[in-house]
Amino acid sequence: MTSNTPQMGLYDKILTLGSCFAHSMGERMLASKMAVMANPFGVLYNPHAIHKALRYALFNEMPPPQTFLQHHDVFLNYDFHSEISSLDPEKLRQTLKEAIGSVHYFLRDTQWLILTYGTAWTYLRKDTGESVANCHKMPGQNFDKVLLTEPEIVESFDALYQELMTFNPNLKVILTVSPVRHVKDTLELNSVSKSVLRTACHTLSTTHPSVGYFPAYELMIDDLRDYRYYKADLIHPTDVAEDYIWQHFVHRYFSEALRKFTDQWNDIRAALEHRPFHTSSKAHQRFLHDTLKKLEALQATVPLEKEIALVKSQLL
Question: d(Cα 84, Cα 180) in Å, to the nearest integer?
């Protein structure tokens, strides 16, 4: 950690967008009781898709009509993940309106924006020429597969960055390249893609004062360097690998007060996840009383009403 690296505080608000790695890191922050909005638009892989979704939120604007589609009986939008879908087109529009609006208002006073780029490959619609976030299993002949270049990514981010700083001058941006391998592009083209993303992130983090880079990708391929740290699909990092990367993130970005709190909370969370064989035993009841005292000592720091109620419900 460099001496000038900004530090996250206990009450800082954080927005994560991008690949499934952004989702997993966001979920860890949520589990640590941090004020995070984790991947509210679903998984987005390429920089143009991430930037476009963020711009919708920034201006609180709905996607244009031509971005909506129907596949079989499901209604979707080309600019968002398929988890944002509906059997009713009006319900889909309402879902998107609420998601975009919630991110817009969250972004107003958010201190941190974490963007995780997964791939530099994107798909262009042949009918409109527009880049899509997801093809939604539409016929392949409807799209052209294109590799984004570093200048294209930098130009797209530069324009977005100026808008972000106007909207929220206190915002700090952390860029990461996802360690998840896109082997469907082949190993060779996955490497090409990751190299484009990495050089783009380097340019952006060295030219913008409020932009930094966290080496999640490098930690995975250089520090861990073993298939033991990949799940059975040989694509996604295991929990052990994510723990390792997470600890590096905590060391680099968490303030001393935030680290102290998360250490305390992780001990309590482990206690809450404990499943005894005999809930009415004296030993377990003492354990519950001790856990309750720890929760009550922290409840002035973060909301713990649900956890306190859960423990009390198990007391005899």
Answer: 22
